[in-house]
Write a structure and sequence with these properties.
The chain is built from eleven helices and six strands. It has 306 residues and is mainly alpha-helical. It has a two-stranded antiparallel ribbon. A two-stranded antiparallel sheet has the order 3-4. The chain has a two-stranded antiparallel ribbon with strand order 5-6. Keywords: Membrane, Transmembrane, Transmembrane helix.
């Protein structure tokens, strides 16, 4: 069901193509699996909760998730701007000739500030797309950026968690006349916690958006086909066949094709050449109509195209 709602193809058709089975056989298997799952205590209640969350209140939940992500991103950035140059020990050992060993160096400072900016920009983009749906390209960029933010927040949670653990291990120890900086441990723990929460909420948000892309994309609309609910793009519906392949309105089929004359028929050269009756096609190609043929069945027109 998840795949059918996510990708624009008929799942049962793909099953038949790969397994050689029929739709009825797989339907019986699905029904047996469904009946087996219904015997599990609490399965119906879980299914009802999932339907309530994913279908009924999806937009509201997505708005709430993006607002929470924006708050976490702002909090992470606020702590991040005070993190560069933070010393691990107090007093800071600046007069020992080693500048970056006992404090947060420039590399970590750049990373944490850049991550904080990304954690604020991405939820803002999500709120904008929920308010005003974008095209497929912008939604793809948003999903890709969300995946990168999700991975980056997990890495930040691990990195700053290890920094906080290091400060905790240093507590009580005297290092070159200085003790562990308790304020540094608080900052590192806050960064690790905020990044971990951002990772969890971002993962849930991406899962819900992938489940129903029509929440942020104007090119994806939910369509039900043969009982399978899928998220199809409206690109195919916008494509019109060439004029000579369209069903004519106001006329019926003639011998050999649709007549290229009469009310309601296409009047383009392509429509005439493809939709004309055999005698009209001969005239369009330079040959003579049937009434100009000699008794032997040969064309008197010297410009006949063979």
């Amino acid at each position: 069901y998840f795949v059918a709602r996510t990708f624009p193809f008929d799942v049962r058709r793909v099953r038949r193509a790969h397994t050689g089975g029929t739709g009825e056989e797989h339907s019986r298997k699905d029904m047996s699996l469904t009946s087996t799952l219904e015997k599990i205590p609490g399965c119906n209640r879980i299914e009802g909760c999932l339907v309530l969350i994913c279908d009924t209140h999806r937009i509201r939940i997505l708005y709430l998730l993006e607002l929470c992500l924006l708050g976490l991103g702002c909090g992470f950035f606020a702590v991040a701007v005070h993190t560069p140059g933070t010393c691990y020990v107090d007093p800071c050992l600046d007069d020992t000739g080693v500048d970056s060993m006992y404090k947060v160096d420039g590399g970590l400072s750049f990373e944490v500030i850049a991550a904080g900016l990304c954690y604020m920009v991405h939820p803002l983009a999500g709120l904008y797309l929920l308010f005003k749906k974008g095209d497929a390209m912008s939604c793809g960029v948003f999903i890709g950026m969300g995946a990168m933010c999700c991975l980056g927040s997990l890495c930040d949670s691990v990195i700053w968690g290890s920094e906080a653990t290091m400060i905790s291990d240093m507590s009580g120890a005297v290092l070159f006349g200085g003790k562990a900086n308790a304020d540094a441990g608080t900052k590192f723990s806050a960064l690790s916690t905020l990044a971990g929460l951002f990772f969890a909420l971002e993962l849930v948000s991406l899962a819900m958006l992938t489940y129903a892309m029509e929440s942020i994309s104007s090119d994806a609309v939910p369509v039900k086909t043969d009982g399978v609910s899928a998220s199809y793009g409206n690109y195919a519906s916008q494509q019109q066949p060439p004029p000579f392949q369209q069903q004519p309105q106001g006329g019926g089929p003639a011998s050999g094709g649709y007549a290229a004359h009469g009310a309601g028929l296409a009047t383009t050269p392509q429509a005439k050449s493809y939709g004309a009756a055999p005698q009209d096609q001969r005239a369009l190609l330079g040959g003579a109509p049937d009434d100009e043929l000699d008794p032997n069945g040969e064309d008197d027109n010297p410009f006949q195209v063979v």
